[in-house]
TrEMBL record:
This is M20 family metallopeptidase. Residues 1-22 form the signal peptide. The keyword Hydrolase applies. It holds the Pfam family Peptidase_M20.
Amino acid sequence: MIRPRALACGLLLALSAGPCFGAQPAASEQRLRHAIDADQPHAIALLERLVNQNSGSLNLPGVKAVGDMVRAELEPLGFDVRWIDMQATGRAGHLVATHKGNGRGKRILLIGHLDTVFEPDSPFQRFVRNGDSATGPGIGDDKGGVVIIVSALRAMHAAGTLRDADIQVVLTGDEESAGAPLDAARADLVAAGKWADVALEYEELIVDGGQDYATVARRGVADWELTATGLTGHSSGVFGDALGYGANYELARILDAFRRELPEPNLTFNVGLMVGGTPATLEPGGARGTAAGKTNIIAERAVARGDLRALTPEQEARARARMQAIVAQHLPKTGATLVFDDAYPPMAPTTGNRAVLSALNQVNADFGLPAMREWDPARRGAADSSFVAADADVLAGLGAAGSGSHAEGETVDLASIPRQALRSAALIGRLARTPR
């Protein structure tokens, strides 16, 4: 990890004798810009090939085919590339590529994903270019990010800055719909995070009002399922000593108490689906439910499913404990249970993460690029970078700029690809020269 004492001068400028702001890039770094500019036809052609190969999370051969395309890009650069089959989790697998450097600099992990939300039955299947923008399924999330990784590494190879760098690239094949069990689906990524000092994640770049933003924090996500039970019988007995309040009132009590008692900054708790009656059930996975009943029957069972998003592990633990305490305060003749299903851990805004952003902004200053600000984590979703945040310093959102993610018409700004590739190539090179 990068330590706070390195913050004083933009972190990595301890490597050079230059000033903290606007230092002249080394000759090898100057070559990065020329290499990236010259590589753009290759980068855009690769993006088109990746986008035109459907790789919906459930299209296992398609995800593997995209992995093979990336393998063909990385092996000539000296990477040892492995395909980790994950069909036991119901998904295709992950691509892990390792470049062995001199072992003296920071170990750097680059994170992206091969899959998209668009399955083969989607009508949105092809890359279409329109001047400096292009549309296509997954073009920004995350095939544009994958192209930026490849373009940066190709430039480093051409400029001679890749040779001594210790790098792992992990491209998951199920970021949009993780395999199960989750521990198995993310075991290889977690292991890479334990190896790394710094992790860079290539989900979409946020651009707002002409300003580029980086991500130093992401909220974690845990799904929850609340089940309330009651005694059923004729509605004339509701609220009475014999039958009590029924499951629907117990469910309503709990959810309303969540609304009133839980709110705090950066914490949200959504109720996505609820059913109640005699009987009432949610299908496995909690995406659909059924209920039956009559106006004169007290509900026997009620179920709700939602998610909890927290910025830090401490905040999540505090919210869970309060939710369980609320659940335990049952109405007469009712019961309730609350079960959590972990999804993404929180990526807290640490000093180390901000140090990496400081280092990136030194790159921006040296190359005459705009400085990048921190993006509000409450306005960003979860991603795979959260799985390594406990072990490495993380900077996220380094992919391509665009709009319409997860929807037909998803668009990427092609001009953002060389800008992001240059930022990454210079930052990775500097990290690789920073002693561990």
